[in-house]
Write a structure and sequence with these properties.
Layout lengths: L5 H28 L2 H35 L5 H35 L6 H28 L7 H7 L1 H16 L3
The structure holds protoporphyrin IX containing FE.
C-alpha cells in the first residue's frame, strides 16, 4: 500500500472535519427548530442506534485486550491488535458515545425536564459507563506503546463492568422503577 503524503493526510482531515461540521449542524438545527412531536421518536431511534454501537465496542474492546495481553510485544499479532483497537475506538466507539450523550440529553431535557429518580440513577450509571470507556481508551494507548499493565484475567473481569451497567441502565429506562 502506498504511503500517503502530509498534504493528502491534511486534505483527508479537512474533509472529515467538514463532514462532522455538516452532520452536527444538521442535527443541531433539527433539535432546535424541528417540531417536537416529529423530532422526538426520531431522536429516540437515533439514541438507541448510537447506544447499540457504543455498547458493541465496550463489550468487544476488553476481549481484544485479553488476546493482546497474550501476544508477544512487537509480533505481527500484537501490531494487528493495536490497529484493531485504535480503529474500534476512533471510528465506532467515540462517535457513538458522543451521539448517545447528545440524543440522550435532548430526551432528558425536552421529554422529562431532567426529572425522575430513574433518570437520575440512569445518568449516574451512564457517567460510570463513560468512565469505563475513558479507562479503556487510556489502556488502548498503553497497549499501543507495548506497555502491558494488566493480566488477561484482569481484562476478563473488566469485561463484566459494561455488561452489568448495561443491564442496570436498560431496566432503569424501560421499567422506570422509581
Ligand atoms: C449517554 C447518556 C444517556 C442519556 C443522557 C440517556 C437518556 C435517555 C432518555 C432521557 C431516554 C428517554 C426515555 C423515555 O422517554 O422514556 C432514553 C431512552 C433510552 N435509552 Fe438512554 N440515555 C443515555 C445512554 C444510554 C445507554 C448507555 C443505554 C443502554 C445501555 C440507553 C438505553 C436507552 C433505551 C433502550 C431507551 C429507550 C427506552 C424506551 O423507549 O422506553 N441509554 N435515554
Amino acid at each position: 500500500m502506498e504511503k500517503q503524503t502530509g498534504e493528502q493526510a491534511g486534505n483527508k482531515a479537512a474533509l472529515r472535519a467538514g463532514i462532522a461540521l455538516v452532520v452536527f449542524g444538521a442535527i443541531g438545527a433539527l433539535l432546535v427548530f424541528g417540531d417536537p412531536a416529529t423530532v422526538y421518536p426520531w431522536v429516540k431511534a437515533l439514541h438507541v442506534i448510537a447506544v447499540i454501537s457504543w455498547m458493541a465496542g465496550l463489550l468487544y474492546l476488553p476481549r481484544l485486550f485479553i488476546y493482546h495481553t497474550d501476544a508477544a510485544p512487537g509480533s505481527e499479532k500484537a501490531e494487528t491488535f493495536k490497529v484493531m483497537e485504535q480503529r474500534l475506538l476512533k471510528i465506532i466507539m467515540r462517535p457513538a458515545m458522543i451521539f448517545s450523550w447528545i440524543f440522550g440529553l435532548y430526551l432528558a431535557w425536552k421529554v422529562h425536564q431532567f426529572q425522575g429518580g430513574w433518570l437520575h440513577a440512569k445518568l449516574l450509571a451512564v457517567v460510570l459507563l463513560s468512565g469505563t470507556h475513558e479507562f479503556f481508551a487510556k489502556s488502548a494507548r498503553d497497549f499501543a506503546r507495548d506497555d502491558i499493565r494488566h493480566t488477561a484475567r484482569f481484562w476478563r473481569l473488566m469485561n463484566e463492568i459494561p455488561t452489568v451497567l448495561m443491564i442496570v441502565i436498560v431496566i432503569l429506562v424501560i421499567v422506570q422503577p422509581f
